[in-house]
Task: inverse folding
């Protein structure tokens, strides 16, 4: 039996500062394949090449990946400033309507880092351009130096709402995570439920209230060592289960209509 397909949102990237690509980190594909049990498929997130309607039909679920460019502040009604950093308007044009469509259809998605922020913006929320500039907040950015293992090392606790979705999924109310982001949620969007916070109050785990499908998103990077990490593994396992359920439902509908 064929595995369901997960679209992994690709990021625009220049190889050797000149050759344009759409790329996705290997650890995303590894987590989707080895832990979720699905086929990873890199999506060129650019409306010149794909339409949201096409993606919804060819993929069973989606991973909204992290990425260096940020969601453009115009998407949530703010003015652009130097603190907002680099942007990828083509990705914005795909992922924001994709999130809303998935919520409406009940199609599963997992948001990671920038993807976490995209889910909030897609539902009408806003972002802080730089978390570390806020009073009392820690620096959540990726360490500038060190090995990949050191950059993705566990750095702070996340505390979940007692009895909530994440608490039940993880089997623990407090977990340790990595942290590699500059921006974060300011105002939560409509139906966005914040269920996890860092010790400094930064939102770290959300879902969309009333969504009939898997709609979880986290501010950290669970794709790192997903097969072994006690926080990452249940997240990607539950996502894979949701994607298979969606794929089974799709096949059942096709059989009935045949």
Result:
């Amino acid at each position: 039996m064929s595995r369901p397909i997960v679209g992994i949102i690709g990021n625009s990237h220049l190889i050797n500062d000149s050759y344009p690509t759409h790329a996705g980190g290997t650890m995303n594909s590894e987590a989707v394949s080895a832990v979720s049990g699905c086929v990873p498929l890199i999506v060129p997130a650019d409306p010149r090449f794909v339409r949201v309607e096409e993606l919804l039909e060819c993929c069973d679920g989606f991973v909204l990946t992290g990425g260096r460019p940020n969601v453009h502040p115009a998407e949530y009604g703010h003015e652009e400033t130097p603190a907002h950093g680099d942007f990828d308007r083509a990705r914005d044009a795909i992922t924001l309507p994709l999130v809303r469509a998935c919520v409406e259809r009940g199609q599963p998605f997992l948001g990671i880092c920038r993807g976490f922020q995209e889910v909030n913006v897609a539902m009408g929320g806003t972002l802080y351009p730089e978390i570390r500039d806020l009073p009392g907040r820690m620096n959540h950015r990726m360490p500038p130096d060190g090995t990949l293992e050191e950059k993705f090392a566990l750095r702070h606790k996340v505390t979940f709402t007692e009895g909530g979705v994440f608490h039940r999924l993880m089997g623990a109310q407090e977990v340790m995570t990595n942290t590699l982001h500059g921006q974060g949620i300011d105002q939560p969007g409509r139906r966005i439920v914040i269920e996890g916070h860092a010790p400094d109050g930064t939102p770290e785990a959300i879902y969309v209230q009333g969504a009939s499908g898997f709609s979880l998103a986290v501010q950290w990077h669970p794709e790192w060592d997903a097969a072994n990490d006690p926080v990452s593994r249940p997240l990607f396992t539950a996502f894979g289960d949701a994607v298979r359920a969606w794929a089974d439902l799709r096949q059942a509908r096709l059989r009935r209509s045949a």
Residues 232-257 form the longest helix (26 residues). The mean pLDDT is 94.
